[in-house]
Amino acid sequence: MDKLKWWHNAVIYEIYPRSFKDSNGDGIGDLRGIISKLDYLKTLGINALWLCPVYTSPNIDGGYDVADYYNICDEIGFLEDMEELIEEAHKRQIRIIMELVANHTSDQHYWFKDAIKSKDSKYRDFYIWRKGKKDGGLPNNWMSSKTGKSVWSNKGNTDEYYLHLYTEKQPDLNWENKEVRYEIYNIMKYWFDKGVDGFRMDVINKIAKASGLPDVPDEVPYHYGEMYFENYPHVHKYLNEMYYEVLIKYPDKVAMGQTSGVSPEQALSYTDESRNELNLFLQFEHMNIDCGDEGRKLEFNPNEFKNSIIKWQTALDSRLWNTIFFGSHDSPRMVSHYGNDKEYHEKSAKMLATIQLLLRGTQIIYMGDELGMTNVNYSNIDDYVDNRSISTYENRVNKQHEDEKTVFEDIRALARDNARYPMQWNDNKFAGFSSVNPWMKVSDNYNIINVSKQETDKDSILSYYKELIRIRNSELTIGIGIFEEIFEEDKDLFAYKRVHKNIEITVVANMSIDEKEVNTKNFGKCIISNYDDECGKLRSYQVNVYKKVLN
Ligand code: NOJ
Fold first, then answer.
1. Contact between 188 and 100 (Cβ < 8 Å)
2. Lower CB count within 10 Å: N or C terminus of the chain?
3. Could you identify the atom of ligand 1 that is nearest to the CA of residue 416?
């Protein structure tokens, strides 16, 4: 990296707008709700907000089904609110990152509504159409790993099927069509000109599909089609074009690509400066560590988690600039996923925050994780609203007749709903999120875990996050220091050093309940810990951070 840009050491806060704060009493979070909480976010110390989609959308997939890229969803606000949010955030030195959902649109987008009517539609070639096979079969055998169903549907007036890697209401755009690509570039310019500081580019590594859309070999499990559309080589040609058409003209805007399934080499091929493609990538290896096929929960092994993080910190001689996140709108809650959300809720939430925020890379905190919000405790499948939770249930219980209880337990552990239920502001009815019954049920622990309670408690998880972010922002070593793992042979310890010039910062975390003897004598002064005392050993989920000036 030649020169550091603002995003390299940013702490980004991810917001799922429908569940952050409802300002107008309709039970749905909105932009004015976010504006009303900017001071809270400023006090937390973050530098940028990443908003999950706020565009006009029928919300089949949490807004990742955009019907109008130039407008805001009615329930979420008006264009003027978005302009005000950008202005108010900027006043507080907070940047705004929006979503660019460009692999697919909603089936309610006017392009698709027109395209589906006839083969002669002006927009027909905006999407990917194929006839079925001669024997009456679907155009190819690709199955979607997200819906568990075929990627083809035939809903229109013609004999052709359209491709959709996600639900049938999210038709894939045809990036081979130059007109499509330039439409997307215009959308980007429109928002950049409004002051938006960057995009998180949804599944951007899936926009290029293998030509001819061949069947996947039979040995590919479930016929998931990723080998023909994930990181497919000509994606680079499109991103390079996007760079020269748009990004080069806006050098201070960030392009953060969602690139699941990348290897370190592939990640570098998207983000190396010489490539002129993206600035940041998001990879999910550590997030998927306990996720099996068809939404099955696998056992979580802390050591695999640690090894995955360390692999990415050190890959390619640390030439990769990682983006670090332990929670998102697509995953369970960080403390429930990787920590202990019962007896050691507070300790393990603080421990995970420390491991995360002192790593090398751009940081993302998912809303509510700064309070240690937990997985939601819904007791009925009907409380779950996310299309993936519903299709997991339908596929495995209704179609495959798996044991209902097992499937429900998997959903409870892994559902995206865990991240999407309303933010807990205080212990008023509906968690202070709304004055009416919200669109998603609140969790039953909001009277214990909420902002108002934690703001006034200096030992709370929230106060700890503030201190960690303050330390991060004031220590250049945490920003750019080299990363080195220590105690690698101990499977319960997650420990590392960050070193820059003569400053050494050491993080030692015990990821287990069992106490651990650790020799920390030479690490210098303890600057933050989730326990009050240092006693020569690390207690359950204890983390200590040390600072030393080297001679
Ligand atoms: C990735 C997003 O993070 C997820 O929420 C969404 O369902 C898919 N892309 C489809 O857009």
1. yes
2. C
3. 5
Question: How far apart are alpha carbons 142 and 410 in whole angstroms?
Answer: 25
Phi then psi for residue 445, to 5 deg, are -110, 20
- Could you tell me the distance, in angstroms and rounded to a whole number, from the CA of residue 61 to the centre of ligand 1? 7
How does DSSP classify residue 171?
A: P
Q: How far is the CA of 295 from the centre of ligand 1 (A)?
A: 15
CB-CB contact of 202 with 259 (8 Å): no
Half-sphere exposure of 310 (CA within 13 A, CB side): 18
Are 97 and 198 spatial neighbours (Cβ–Cβ below 8 Å)?
Answer: yes
**Residue 20 Cα, ligand 1 centroid: separation in angstroms?**
18
Return the ligand 1 atom nearest residue 329 CA: 5
Ligand 1 cavity residues, CB under 6 Å = 61-62, 64, 101, 166, 202-203, 258, 329-330
Hunting for tokens 């159409």 — which residue is that?
129
Collect all residues with Cβ–Cβ distance below 8 Å to 314 and sequence separation of at least 6. 483, 485
CA 287 / ligand 1 centre spacing (Å): 14
- List per-residue pLDDT tens for the chain, 551 residues long: 668 999 999 999 999 999 999 999 999 999 999 999 999 999 999 999 999 999 999 999 999 999 999 999 999 999 999 999 999 999 999 999 999 999 999 999 999 999 999 999 999 999 999 999 998 899 999 999 999 999 999 987 899 999 999 999 999 999 999 999 999 999 999 999 999 999 999 999 999 999 999 999 999 999 999 999 999 999 999 999 999 999 999 999 999 999 999 999 999 999 999 999 999 999 999 999 999 999 999 999 999 999 999 999 999 988 899 999 999 999 999 999 999 999 999 999 999 999 999 999 999 999 999 999 999 999 999 999 999 999 999 999 999 999 999 999 999 999 999 999 999 999 999 999 999 999 999 999 999 999 999 999 999 999 999 999 999 999 999 999 999 999 999 999 999 999 999 999 999 999 999 999 999 999 999 999 999 977 779 999 999 999 999 98
Report the C-alpha gap between 236 and 327 in whole angstroms: 28
166 Cα nearest atom in ligand 1: 10
Measure 64 CA to ligand 1 centroid, in angstroms.
Answer: 6
- Express the helix, strand and coil content of the chain in percent, nearest 5 each: 35, 15, 50
Round to whole Å and give the CA distance between 328 and 211.
33
